[in-house]
């Protein structure tokens, strides 16, 4: 993933809140430190079912952001984290099919097996100001819980979004 693209997207999301001087706010936001959570999960689901689960979990978290890489199955959303969901968090989920024998089933060969599991790489990144909210870490852990099947109902997603308000 292109880290510069991640910084630019987060800076733009922060700049949305500036009534004036948006370019200045974005310039400062690019220089803020990031709070990042990265995690590898293995879902005991076939690839097609794992894609459906990822789409269902991410659908209610925020607005969809197009992925940078086109070679792998990647999903990105801009979610809200921190107090009242006002801190933008870029959540990226990359999926890789793993065959039943433990070897990776190449997506280029078109072998999306009906057995086996799916490897999920999760990354959640947020900019941090003077007040450390750890929005990237908290959002990443919560998305991992939802993907693993601990929660994930409509009520859980609405509570996660910051008092029912999606990040715009």
Describe this protein's structure.
The protein is an alpha+beta fold and 168 residues long. The protein has a single domain, classed as Alpha-D-Glucose-1,6-Bisphosphate, Chain A, domain 4 (2-Layer Sandwich), CATH 3.30.530. Helix content is 34%, strand content 27%. The protein has helices at 3-15, 22-31, 47-59, 135-148, 154-160; strands at 34-43, 62-65, 73-81, 87-98, 117-127. A 5-stranded antiparallel β-sheet has the order 1-5-4-3-2, sandwiched between helices. Strand 3 and strand 4 form a beta hairpin. It starts with a helix and ends in an 8-residue tail after the last helix.
Per DSSP E runs of 2 or more residues, the count of β-strands stands at 5
Count of domains: 1
Range of helix content: 25-40%
Order of helices and strands: HHEHEEEEHH
Strand order within the widest beta sheet: 1-5-4-3-2
The shape, in one word, is: elongated
Based on CA atoms alone, the radius of gyration comes out at 17 Å
> In the CATH classification, which architecture applies?
2-Layer Sandwich
Helices and strands: which structural class? Answer: alpha+beta
Largest sheet: 5 strands, antiparallel
What's the CATH class, please? Alpha Beta
Percent strand:
25-35%
**N- to C-terminal separation?**
23 Å
Overall mean pLDDT stands at 75
Oligomer kind: single chain
Number of helices: 5
Sequence stretches where pLDDT stays below 50 over 5 or more residues: 101-113, 154-159, 161-168
Looking at CATH, which topology would you report? Answer: Alpha-D-Glucose-1,6-Bisphosphate, Chain A, domain 4
